[in-house]
Recover the amino acids of this structure.
DNA sequence: TTTGTATTTAGATATTTGTCTAAATATATA
DNA sequence: TATATATTTAGACAAATATCTAAATACAAA
């Protein structure tokens, strides 16, 4: 969870996730959406990948990035433990949250 | 959301939330659970309060802290938008998520 | 009022973070 | 092979962060 929260603690990185929600993008396409240098975006992608919030796949000379919903679901379970919503908590139990 | 993710990006602060999940605690009681100075814990409580993840109430000479599930639910909605779980997404719609 | 307890504020410092430019690596194409 | 494109790595630096000690504030009780 540490790397996940670290990755999410930056507006640009959260915006990258929103972009990838729409569909896969290459590193260059992602960089073109922001007013930061390519190395800076590359660094952000690295942190998101360390958190396993995204995965990368080499496609020829490009590298394509996409969301990894597995970790999103773990985060969801973590948040649910604090929710006041009883039915969410029940679902949480179904999802097998065990604390950590 | 910025202050929320900032507040969550620290193990000690997440542990404080877990502690408050069990019930309200005074600043001193919270500090006693950690191997950090009271000023350090006070600072962490301040950041959690800025994010509105917790609320404080003065009770005589003590200050009692408790969870604020309202912001937890907002966070939940934010995470849900990335979830692959379709029924969760439907629920998300019911909760009125509008993006941000 | 004086003393003690609870908590925060102030100020200092080492570490981490986000950003940049320059250079390196990898692949495609002429 | 030589050149161009895509991306990352390396190194530097300013800003933000987590921690500490010392001091200040607020309240309670003797």
């Amino acid at each position: 969870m540490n790397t996940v929260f670290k990755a999410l603690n930056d507006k640009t990185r959260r915006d990258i996730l929103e972009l990838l929600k729409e569909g896969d993008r290459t590193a260059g396409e992602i960089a073109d959406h922001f007013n930061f240098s390519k190395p800076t975006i590359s660094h952000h992608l690295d942190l998101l990948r360390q958190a396993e919030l995204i995965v990368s796949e080499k496609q020829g000379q490009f590298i394509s990035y996409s969301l990894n919903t597995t970790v999103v679901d773990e985060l969801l379970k973590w948040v649910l433990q604090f929710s006041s919503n009883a039915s969410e908590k029940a679902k949480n139990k179904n999802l097998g949250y065990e604390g950590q």
Summary: The longest helix of chain B spans residues 38-50.
